[in-house]
Structures are given as C-alpha cells and as structure tokens.
Amino acid sequence: DLASAPNTIIERRELQPNIIELTVNAPVIAKNAQAGQFVRVLAEPQGELVPLTLADWDAEAGTIVLVVQGMGTTSKMINAMKVGDRLEGIAGPLGQPSELHKIADDQTVVFTAGGVGLPPVYPIARANLQLGNHVTLIAGFRSADLLFWVGEGERVDELQAEFGDQLEVIYTSNDGSFGIEGFVTVPLKDLLDANQRGEGRPIAEVTTIGPPMMMRSVSDLTKPYGAKTVASLNSIMVDATGMCGACMVPVLIDGKLIRKHACIDGPELDSHAIDWDKFLPRFNLFKSQEQQSKIKHGW
Ligand code: FES
C-alpha cells in the first residue's frame, strides 16, 4: 500500500506556520543514518535538489524525520505536501557523521542551536548523551511564539526526562519573552567566563548550528578562549557529491586558503578555520534566481 511505499510522507506536523516536521518512509536511510548526517531531497521530477538535515530516524520503523522551513520554492513545495504524498527521491545518508568521543566526566559538550538549528542539533546531542557525555544545550528562538519541540511530550523535554542531570538546557530569545534575553552567545559567554575563573563544567567542545551570522558570532566568541568549536554548515548545495562546488567553504589552514566542500568534507567543519568574511556572502549567491522562482510560483 501507499503508506509503506518508499519516500511517502506518513506523518505531518506543523511546528510553526512555516516550519513543518515530516515523517517519511525511508527504510534504507533510517538503517544507515548516523548523527550529523543529512539527506538530499528531490521533491518533484523537474525540481531542484535540496539538502535537509536528518532530525531523527527510527531504524526499526524504517522512517526518517525531516524538519523543513519554507524559505524558497522547493522547501515551500515540500511543506505544502500532505500525508500520503510521495517525494520523488531521497538520497542519503550523506556527509560525514559527527565525531563522537567520550569526554572527561566533569566536562560538558556545548551545543548552540538557533531556530531551525535545533532539529540538526538534536540527534548529535542525543548521541553524546548516549555515550555518557554531559551536554549543555543552548537553544535560541527569536521569541516565545516561535518555539517548537519545547514543552511536555516534545523532543527536548523528552530528552531531559530521559537523561536528567546529564543534560542542561538553556533557552534564549532575542526579545526576552522566553528564557534568557539575547542571543545564544549570552549564556555561552557566561560559561566561558566561568571556566576562565575555574568555575563550572569545563567546556570540551562547542558545536554551533543555525543561521550563518549566529554561527559566526559563536565562532568569534569562542576563539579567544581557545574553545574548540565546530560549525555544522547549512550551505547552499546542488549535487551534494563534491562535484558542483556550490557548497564551497573557504578554510584557512596554516595561513593557506583551502577549499572544503560542506557536502562531503562536512557538514561539520572547524569553525575557527573558516574564513567567514569570504564564506558569508556565498549564502546570497542564488538570491536573484530564488526571487525569480518565487515570482514564477506566485509566492
Ligand atoms: Fe556540490 Fe557540495 S553540493 S560540491
């Protein structure tokens, strides 16, 4: 039957008017997925390929969970799909899995997630918890009415219930309507300063996922403290196989500029090595095409 056919949407949940969580039948991907990886989705035969993070998966049920923010033509098209609809194709899992290692018992692994950065952070944080690591999750939203995955029965709270003291969750909002007022960098700076005074759990590593400017701010903040920081890059991608160059990330290694590809070398890269001045403008590369496409589709 249709519901068990590959690539079929079997559950659809509106997290926010513009943010949709889809549970999709994809048994092979669900069986092979590792934390930190993504998939490449083709929504319709003549459509464009979009990279989407694996927000969750269930190997037994043969399902994967994608969280899609309607931004461009394709993501809006995917978000408009209904239960029973079928995506044309899903390739994956793609990208390098997160490097997981056991940290010292008194340390913590910090995640800073901005907005829809939370779904990609979730499986990596969970994998760290399962490994026995203490995790500090700093989740930032623009305001209280844009929250998702927070509250009873929701993913963050379920994780908290499962792992107890092993997980510390700190919320921020830009307008102070939920949690600490300000960006994710506010509590992160407090933690780094505390570490410098010899207080709090020493930060073993920071992983940042979210809007490019947020990742840059986190990276700039942690650099002088010498805190190892990894950015999981939601670059513009086309083929996601290292061939097209769309996802190029300029990285400085020993003063030499090296081109890395977010799709095959990443998505996680050492954020202190990224040349952010050169990298950030790349997010605007396809703005005019995207605009044209929106006009064509009447969005
Ligand atoms: Fe084409 Fe990475 S998406 S090289």
Automatic annotation (TrEMBL):
GO terms for molecular function: iron-sulfur cluster binding; oxidoreductase activity. Residues 2-100 form the FAD-binding FR-type domain. This is FAD-binding FR-type domain-containing protein. The lineage of its organism: Bacteria, Bacillati, Actinomycetota, Actinomycetes, Propionibacteriales. The chain holds residues 643 to 941 of 942 of the full protein.
